[in-house]
Amino acid sequence: MQGSSRLVLAHFWAAFATFAVAIPLGAWQMLVRSPLHQWIAPELYYRAVTAHGTTFAYVFPTLIAMGFGYAVCAVSLGRPMRGLSLAWISFALVIVGAAMALATVAAGKANVLYTFYPPLLGSPYYYLGILVAVVGTWVWIGLMVWHVRRWKIDHPVLPIPLAMFATAVGALLWGWTSLGVGAEIAFLILPNAFGWTSTIDPGLARVLFSWTLHAIVYFWLIPAYIAFYVLLPQAADGRLYSDKMGRIAFLLLLIFSMPIGLHHLFVDPQIGAGFKFLHTVFTGMVVVPTLLTIFTICASLEIAGRLRGGRGPFGWIAALPWDRPFVLASGFSMVMLGLGGASGIINMSYVLNSTVHNTQWVTGHFHLIYGGAVVIMYFAIAYELWPRLTGRPLAAPKLVRLQLWTWSVGMLLVTLPWHLVGVMGQPRRMAYYDFSNPALASQGVWVTVSAIGGFVLVFSAALFIGVLLASHRGPTAAISPLKFSLAVNPPRRLPKSLNSFGIWAALVLALTLANYGYPLAQFAFLGKSAVPAFPVSQNDRR
Amino acid sequence: MSTLPSDVIEESERRWAYVVAAVIGLMFAVIIFTSVHWAAQPPSNVETIDASRLHLAGEFVEENLGTAVQPDGSVIVRVIAQQYSFVPSCMVVPAQTPVVFRVTSPDVVHGFLIMDTNVNSMVVPGFIAEIRTRFEKPKTHLMPCHEYCSVGHDGMWAHVKVVDRQEFTKSYGSQPRASCAG
Amino acid sequence: MTDVDQPRPRDPRFAIWIGVTAGLFVLALVVGFIWLPLAQRGADGLDLWSAICRAVGLPSGNARVSAPVAGQPASQVAWTTETRRRLAQGDASAGAAIAQACNNCHGVVGISADAIIPNLAGQSAAAIYKQLDDYKSGKRDPAVMGVYVSPLSDQNLLDLAAHYGLLPNPTGDTLSTQSSTSTVARRLIDVGAPLRGIAPCASCHGPAGVTPGAPGLRGQQRAYLELQMQLFKDGTRRNDISEQMRSVARQLTSEEIAMLAAHYSSIPDTGGR
Asked: Is residue A496 less than 8 Å (CB to CB) from chain C?
């Protein structure tokens, strides 16, 4: 990876280190809230939930996206990355910020959960840590955009390689969407936590958070989609069906994943129903790039399957090399994406949302999409990159397959029961439920099943870390350099719309203004809705 | 690969685009249809209130909490969601009657969820959440708070008792603000 | 290969996509702000304009303007920013001077000698201030305390609250001699009884969490605690804002109240703060 191997490896190891801590925390939470365990004093539970959520929302996927971005940058542009010292500064900011936030959580000073809805207020160092980490990612965004620009100046005619094009989309998307939570922390929460302001408007804070809360999921998703487009076809001995369609899908993600966040606030009292419908419509549009991706990837895999001798309408599926980790992981990912996407359509529906809002259904939905479909692709990416980063082949291929199997089975065991008890009305974010009550008794068995699934995931996570560690100790060998899949018809030239970002970025700005303008501006004149903060911990009491 | 020229690929993609458009179009059609003909809609009532002074005067003083029968026979239930209880902690409403819940919070964000129904709302301090519904059958529903409201969140459960209309008039009709709490 | 030298193909995508997006936006506006509000006016009998205003989220579009209700507030204290700011202005040394009048009953160091009279040492200043103000306004039965509180100014109350807040917490030898290991009490304190509507005591009274004005209970006098919980339970005492304490106490049995009082009075108020 031409000089950036250490950088990429540092990002991935830092990410997986946080992963290794946060996964057992998740499993422990599921155990203590299940009928298998006595009720525990909830403070510890919420401390663990905050640590788990903060790690998986702001730290782990961010480091993966950054590390993978650097890898893509070096490989797809075919020249060494520049600005390595800036990249290390960015890494250090993310690590320092994450450490500050997580240490505050561990000390029990910020039991506010990763959504930290004001006026609930934790220690300022928690929010400051997140802000520092977010600012660290902005350096990465700058580096990605700068590399694309520099490459375009040197190659005015050639298309930007698809992997880099998509990475730049991810960077721009995150840059724009991180402003919501950034503004919430910088202008509402921190001034209050430090005592410079006396009130916070919780409605405004929720709208700003929703600005980030949905598109952040697509920021997590984009590395997985990049892997589908540029690594999977090759891993299956095929070629990418269409390079152009990939670009269109990523551009649609850029445009439609941001101005739709109000669908998280369908049952909030501070937003008029008209805007709720508006955001429903645009949330519907964000289904389009996923449907396009599914089509293109299935077509690419069909090419691979038929090249490998598969026949008939479905024979090509059996002919695919399912023993290869990347293909296996992608298959599982697609299944979980399909299931999670279906439950997501319920969430985004203007009329169905109230059946499931803030129930365990929602937790099931985003764990299936993110913990399942996305994170399993992070594993696949790591397995693909590791030999290239360490110069040693991957240890124990059988264990790798077992790891992917157990992760998928574990994730389905965790999330499908959650969907079910969610429909039964079980609220999320509770440390215990009184299953002795007849109305809740039938949920107990399903909560137990999902707790068991949690321990399957811990086993799988341990396998994953073990394989990566073992691979560092293996013998060195000649490893083929990382290459990205070729399209069936690689584009030699592309129209401007599929090879630039300027006008699309302007469209995103305009759409944001149209969809978020009034819902944000209304707080200037609604009046008297701001309230004093309520500290979550005892220390601020006297 | 020569067996797959660009125009074949683009033709297949065009066909898929129609499928996608049809799927999305159908989704919107269903949403709009149910919204118009079942009048299913998310709560929509932007109304602010001074959260710190709820108990001093106005709509959410203690005496006004609970179920109030309106001249037209419908009921309004006024509820406070606070750390860590709903007041009243047991709400009573008649079956087969239009019900409006008006809920607000004096402190942090809470959730309002009546189990086995579609009644679901956030309760955001500074705002009044208004939820319209109708219960068909007498039944006692559980009502947990569904948004984390600090460490006592787990203990924040209330009950909604739906009773027959005659029973409601008989047992609760005399109270200006009915509830089944204590 | 020849196309490398040709000018780039004209690109209609920008126009098409921006057109589609704008079209979708307009369509969503028409449906979301006109059609659906019209269909959803339902029983509210709104005119079109009010229905649209409600969909936008304009307060003027509210169907239901509520008439103010006359009530007797449970307490005149409200946890506004103003109250919170003033609490920080209590002067503990001035409070110590005023507290001379309180020492007879509440003890020189804020630890009372009589189990029916509360300890005040180390108590939350917000809790003391609120109770003093409630005695003064008659929201809490002023039979005993009224005479002491009525001549005091609001600033006096703040000073007293600051003074007692700074005294060292009750520890060791001042505790009730009957130690309690009641699992019932511990369970109520740590996890509550959710479906009876009882949140964990510790989530308001510490150490797990804090709500404004909730007193610390550890090391408090046993008879005092038991009596107050009983008064909340039977509704005799009603100065808790929005029934915050009454709604819990109503659910407690008298046995549970006795066990809680015994438990709290036997543990020192030291750690976790």
From this structure: yes
